[in-house]
Amino acid sequence: MPERARPSSDEPLLDLPADENGMSAEALENQVQKAQEALLSLKRQQDHIERQKRELEELSRRQEQLNLGRTEMVEKFTRAIVVLERESYGARKRVEMLESIHESFSAHMDALEAINPKTWDGLDINKELNKALSAVDDARAEYATNVPKISLESDGDSSDAMAISAGYQFDYAHEAQKDFLYWLKAGFAFTLPLIILGVIFLLVLLSSASHSSTP
User: Fold this and answer.
1) What confidence category does residue 137 fall into, taking pLDDT thresholds of 50, 70 and 90?
2) Distance between alpha carbon 95 and the CA centroid of its chain, in Å?
3) What angle do CA 155, 160, 165 make, to 5 degrees?
């Protein structure tokens, strides 16, 4: 068998004859190029898949954030609505109570302002005086019962608050300890209507006595 001619050093490698497997260098290079293109395509697909994975993870995170936020706010609004309904009910009841107290105070005010001993001439003064004193006692009892309900401060002295609104001034530093002067003023304020009515009654009696003694 004749010996295969060896290529000269000036001939390119691409011109080599087929190797033992029958594949030329050019075909091998084509296969390598195809393999590289396949790898590049796989790399692109991998990048695309990884990008889609990141997008799906971001969507999943935002979806979870939406669900958590929605659940949180629904729970908060549910609790808030319950509180609002309870407060609204309490506010309506309080308004009804205040309106009732207002009507009662106005009625007592009208009754007290209607007391006029000057119109008792010719009437049973003792009976009229008893009615007037009874009206004062009823007004005082109504006032003492309902004034604490007016103030929103549960631990405050509502009667003092009412007195302040009427123009009185109190020393709150000594509110817990009320001295003798305080109770003296309070007793005087409570008995002042009785004193006034007693004076009026005496004046009426003196006037009646003077009229009866005149010939």
Assistant:
1) very high
2) 18
3) 120
Closest to 136 in 3D by CA, of 185, 198, 181 = 198
Q: How far apart are CA 168 and CA 160, in angstroms?
A: 9
* pTM of the complete model: 0.45
Distance from C-alpha of 197 to C-alpha of 125, rounded to nearest angstrom: 11
Q: What is the pLDDT of residues 5-18, one digit of tens each?
A: 444 444 444 444 44
Cα 116 from Cα 67, distance rounded (Å): 75
| The predicted structure's pLDDT at residue 211 | 53
**Sequence-distant (≥ 6) Cβ neighbours of residue 162 within 8 angstroms:** 147, 150, 151
Cβ–Cβ < 8 Å for 126, 154: no
Q: What string of DSSP letters covers 6-26?
A: PPPTTS-GGGPPP-TTS--HH
DSSP character string of 39-54 = HHHHHHHHHHHHHHHH
Residue located via tokens 């290079």: 29
201 near 117, Cβ under 8 Å?
yes
CA angle 115, 168, 102 (to 5 degrees): 50
Cβ atoms 125, 209 nearer than 8 A: no
Q: What is the DSSP letter of 119?
A: G
Q: Which helix (H) or strand (E) holds 189?
A: helix 180-213
For the chain, the first-to-last Cα distance in angstroms comes to 185
Question: Any idea what DSSP says for residue 116?
Answer: -
